[in-house]
What does this fold into?
Amino acid sequence: MFCYSDFTAKHLATEAKEDKDIEELSRAVDVAYKSPLMPIRDAVPVTESQISLDLDAATEFSALEEISDEEAVRIFVPSAMPPASLSLRDYVDQSETLSKLVQLGVNLWKLEQRPNVGSMLLRLNFNTDVAPRLLFLKEIGVDDSHFGNIITRNPFILTESLENLQARVNYLKSKKFSSETVASMVSRAPYLLNFSVKRLDNRLGFFQQQLNLSASNLRNIVARLPRLLCGSLEPIKENLKVCEIEFGFKENEIQHIVLSVPKVLAANKRKLTQIFDLLHNTMEVPHHLIVKFPQVLNSKYLRIRERHLFLEYLGKAQYDPNLPNYISLDRLVSLPDEAFCTELALATLEDFHLFQKTL
Amino acid sequence: MMASPAVRMFWRLEGLFCVYKPPGVHWKLVRDNIETTLLKGLNAAPSGPLPKEVRFLPDPESDTGATKGLTLSAASVPVLSKHPLVTGPEFQHIKVGVGHRLDAFSSGVLVLAVGNSNKILNNFCRTRVTRDYTLEGEFGTATDDFSYRGKVVERSTYGHVTQDNLDRVLAMLQGANQKALLMYSNVDMRSQEAYEMAAQGLLGPEGKSEPVLTGLRCVHFQPPNFTLEVQCLNETQKYLRKVVHEIGLELRSTAVCKGVRRTRDGPFTLQDALTRNHWTASDVMQAIRKYHSSKKTKKYSHTKTVDAAPEENTMTDSQQNETCDETAVGVIK
It folds into this structure.
């Protein structure tokens, strides 16, 4: 703790570009704060041998000795901040930017794991860099409580230029997204405003073309799943191809599925295939029923499998709406365990657990 | 210094517990899932208030900025470097150890331990505990990896197979395994020592050896499907599937394994196993409490084998305290 030498302070002055006031203040603060603890000299390591050797020297400079104000100011005390550190917690107390970010709710610990983000945050000045962008977000309608989450997920929003941010918001509004929608999209997909207008345009064009959607439907989907505009298009193209070729859905069926459950576009291809295989081949649910209840494609494979096997064991696995004792697919996947047992399976929760252990 | 509530919860997680691994899932995913849910439970414990330190802050009225002109006032401010958003969650990684593994195709009881109890888990793995399995088989096909998911290698008829034939084959297999058991126990069969060990049930291989089936019987026979109940030592699930395949060959037909389910691992039975919706920190703590209390009631000695040979109707102390329900197929009627 005490082993900082003189030159570290010079490093600090060049590296952390903080307000001059704060640096001087911290030095002055340390003077006032540290005086009761140790005799203030040049900060040399206070090892045991030195203490015993310097006993005479210590009596010369007693901590309780009164000194004039000019001398007090001239005494040099290095700041507690190390010149380089792996963590932001060494700098949080001294940096105004970092303290205010923590008060906003930004998860500094998560951010410092990412390479270079920590140094970038340290170099920001709250008043000139961070505050204008937060005000901008507030103007477009983002709620204050979301700032922490947005910055934690996308710290680079603080380095994007204000003209660019404004241009992208204007573009979205020109595509007839309402301001509340834009605000909600930015809160849920924080990387949205970092993409250029051209890229956003490309994305919207791609979706409109591939899915043959009307403009209002497209707006609906993008508003509900804004990260479609942020990620890469390759997995989405693959998913669409899989739906068309492997599953055999027709174009209007795919449109309907995507409109009700946009997450299918961004789902994992292997898991989607697994669920469809279970539904179509094992449970023998025809295509039109899957299209009628597209949320089954979004649920967990093991959940559907266990519940289906339980119903099959009880003789109740009947998914055809024309026959009696019909079990609807959406209730099969959406009901919580207890409701599923009492209403659909007409058994107790314990029976279901015992059955789970026989699989 | 008081330990935080999260640390105290971590101490309560010391002990062994078992979960039910669903089929088709790699055991590592199960282990990672448990680790994530336990971490969530541990970090959800409320942390104490931030420590405060006294600092001298400038008075709001002074705006000259000159060092000499600043008036400082003492204020007690919270130390932000100890804030959880800066330090990270209290527990970032816990060691969750897995006992005897189950491959992805099988399902059943999987013993786990958290943190310091991994040492107990090591001891448990090294003791000679037997495991109970239920094997589902089907006549008529043979595949390359002995399970119904593999590539079909051969097909045959099974009309000539009767329950009698099956029982005879099983008895023969069991006899061969008993001989192997005696051979691996490294004791001269004609000595008094061997007799005493056999009387106490201590015969068996020490440490690693070939898989040995200490018990084997057929519980359900309806061609083409049949179900076997096995007690074994040092096994792997692939070996058990191979046993099903070999039984098919012995009966001059072919058989494939449709399911391998572990119903008991030492003293842990299906009844204690936690299903997927119970993989939360509080349920795990309850299971560990049950394990500790059951350890106190039964005479659990690490040197004694904890198994029951199927031909005798005796149950050891450990199994007596576990009430078997209809799904724990290890019931000795």
